[in-house]
Each structure stands twice: as C-alpha cells, then as structure tokens.
Amino acid sequence: MDLKSYLQTLYEYNYWANHRYLDAAAGLTGEQFTYKHGHSWESVQGVLVHMLSSERMWPMRWKGEGPVTFLQAQDFPTLASIRDFWLDVEQSMRGFLAAQSEQSLLAAVTYINPKGETFTLPLWQMMAHVPNHNTHHRGELAAMFALLNAPHPEEEVVQYFLISSGQRKA
Vertex 44, ends 15 and 127: CA angle to 5°? Predict the structure, then answer.
C-alpha cells in the first residue's frame, strides 16, 4: 500500500469515528455537554473543539500559513456549531489529502508551533498525527461519557474495518 492510500484509509477511519462521537454527543443534555470534568480540555465541548482546532491548524501549517491560533470552546456553544464548522474542516482536509502525491507526502515540511518553536518532518508523518491525536482525545471522550453515564460508541480501528468489510453491522 502506498502512503497516500494508507493516509486516505486512516482519515476515513478518523472521520467515521469522529462522526460516531458527534452523534453520541447529540444525546447529551446541555449540562452534560459543558460539564467540567477537571482534566484535559475539561468538557465534552472542550475536547471536541480542541480536536476540531487541531485538525484545522495542521493543514494551515503544512501550507505555510501562520501563526495559527487555537479555536476557543466559548465560540462553539452548541454541538451544531461544532459539527457545522467541522464539516468545512473535514472537506478541506480531504481536498488537501487528495491533492498530494507520494513525492509531496515524503517531502519535508517546516512549521512553527504556537510556542514559536520550529520543527521539520516529512508531510506524511504530520498527516498521520492528526487521526492519532483524535484517537487519543476520543479515548478521553469515552471516559467523560462513562462518567456522565451516557452511551458512547465503539470506535476502535478494528471495528471500522469489520463494519467496512461487512462483517459487523454499524
């Protein structure tokens, strides 16, 4: 499998899993959505906005745009506002990935983080980071949902592959 195909599969999984959590969050009350758990990004709302912010930030870095700032949870007071903004970010990311070649994915890209530090890595490694980052935070969401006694989806990559192959039902 080439890098582009691998990344496309990884991003398909990422969006499948993200959508499952966005759908699960629709079952939360407003109080549950903003309840401060005291860790990470504090609330379901905060974690989702952080994930969205990061996913928006990375392609901007790859294109040499900056400095890039984090989105703020207070600017996304509802799940609908997060979902609407994320649809545009997802579409942009899909377009960015579609435009890549094996050569561009292997090319080194330099970026500056919000602390002003400069780093250089091959583009594919930075692109692999985004779904991995979201997986980490979906794990935090699972814990938050459990603490709220709210149902949450299985979203492990093996579940995605089993459902995609028709071996399990969605």
Answer: 35
C-alpha 118, offset from chain centre:
23
Burial zone of 136 (CB within 10 Å; 0-12 exposed, 13-18 middle, 19+ buried) = exposed
Distance (Å, rounded) from C-alpha 42 to C-alpha 46? 6
Tell me phi and psi for residue 110, to 5 degrees. Answer: -105, 140
Tokens standing for 68?
């890039």
For the chain, helix, strand, coil in percent to 5 are 65, 5, 30
Condensed to tens digits (0 to 9), the pLDDT of residues 4-36 reads 999 999 999 999 999 999 999 999 999 999 999
CA 153 – CA 147 distance, rounded (Å): 14
pLDDT digits (tens, 9 = 90+) for 58-96: 999 999 887 678 999 999 999 999 999 999 999 999 999
- Cα 29 → chain centroid: 23
Tell me the average pLDDT of the chain.
Answer: 95
Q: What is the CA radius of gyration of the chain?
A: 17
Over range 133-157, report the average pLDDT. Answer: 95
Closest CA to 8 of 156, 134, 127: 127
